[in-house]
Fold this protein.
Amino acid sequence: MPEIAEGKTLAAVKAPDDAIVFGKVGTSGPAFQKAMTGKKVLDANQQGKYFWFAALVPLIMSSPPHPVFHLGMTGWIQIRGEPTGHYRPKESKEEEEWPPKYWRFILETDSKPKIEAAFVDARRFGRVRLLDCAAEDIRNTTPLNDNGPDPVIDKDILTAGWLETKILSKSVPIKSLLLDQAVISGLGNWVTDEVLYNAKLHPEQYSNTFSSEQIKQLHKSILYVCQTAVDLLADSSKFPEEWLFNHRWGKSKTKAPITLPNGAEMIKLTVGNRTSCVVPSVQKNIIELPTEERKQNINGAEDADSKKESKPRANASKKRKAVVVKAIKAEEEELTEDEPKGKAKKAKSTPKTKVGKVEIEETPSGGRRRSTRVPKTKE
């Protein structure tokens, strides 16, 4: 982060405790404040959706812990006096407020003029943690080592061959695979849609059905979209006009297709519980026949998936049956309880027998049925 000015010392740090932003990842606001105050910022790095500072205590050797940040959905670093992006548009008066609304921590340098930076997160999806390790080991420590390679800084790892092996070993919709941070770091929802549109691939097509040529094109698109966004410092006003990003957040709240400048229609689908923008005329869900080697991979993956899923599905089925049976029994018990105790069930109504002008209704009694007819008298 060049705005923080590497080489400057953090003279003051304010970090009120927050059980979510700090506490969810095993630290606290006061612990962060204590660890950062007096530290010199040597460098700033990132991997995927995480970034961190490498800090040094003045005149002393490299000193952990190091702060690692995840901005979440609505977080950002705001520099005082500098234009910044926002989760939602702000009024000009709010822009001038300091500290900004929803700030979670504030850093101040000892330089003149001093630099002030704040971490702002309205919905508190961001996370701030402290890693007690050497700076060079940060990427080999949780949570960084749980994530896949970064498309911008790990091009030597994320090769077309590596990607093909990963893709063909899974049997899931390609968008779900790309969103998995354990596979590739940093691909979020809109980035993945942009990548698939650029590669002319449908988000619902299963990963193990792609040809080698399709995977090579996908690899090129991943590198192109990610590198372009980074080179432009994520300034969306400078993104290429043909990118879906410029049109996916239209004013229309209906499900009607959105017409792009080139005349193509963009629709929205739900893939893996995420809203996906797709251009059907460009992205077609065509399953190409895999080679014999791929067939073996697919069969193996399906067998493994079926073994994993068979047991839970059976249990789920049993649970559903148990719930139904329980509900039926409960209903029967309720019906039984509604009936008056000690009385027999109501018998079918019987016809009335007329004897002269007297009407006698036949009623059932326990045991043998008796006649209630009035005997005729002899005249």
Observations:
- The helical segments are 29-36, 92-95, 160-168, 174-179, 189-199, 212-231, 292-338.
- DSSP finds seven helices and 13 strands in the chain.
